[in-house]
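Please, structure for the following, as tokens.
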Amino acid sequence: MSKNKDEKPLTYQQRIYGKGMREGRKTGFELGRKTGEIIGHEKGRQEGMKIVLDTIFNNQPKKKSGCFITTATCQARNLPDDCHELTVLRHFRDTYMKNNSEMNSEVEEYYEIAPIICQNIDNEPNSSEIYENIYEKWLKSAVLAVDEGKNEVAHDIYKDMVLSLKKEFYE
């Protein structure tokens, strides 16, 4: 696709708007698929607008809930967002953990503390080494456990990781 020489580059606000709409559409499709309702698409569009407005006016995009520590670790290893580790652990979270009320509350707490843990790790001069240790000590084993159908073991490994990192990089 060639770029028209008269075409001006997108402004910051236009790029953020596009990102917000894509994220909102994705969220809407997920909601629609889960509920079987078209209303999910409208809710997704509204969520996209919140992302746009938060970013433009506060210069701080709203973070989506997700595998913060796993994502940061995989990014430090230059792995793509759809790598095996992220795919497996996201599916594990969404199908196994969120269907258990006790584990679901752990996920909610994780959403609160994990971004701060990652930020504090990122502020360390040896953050790449820390993320590599996280991968070797916990994530690799958790993914293997899920792959082998040992969900309780995977949960214990991930919970141990979060509690250890919370102690070191949150409190």
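Residues 60-65 have pLDDT under 50 and may be disordered. The radius of gyration is 18 Å.
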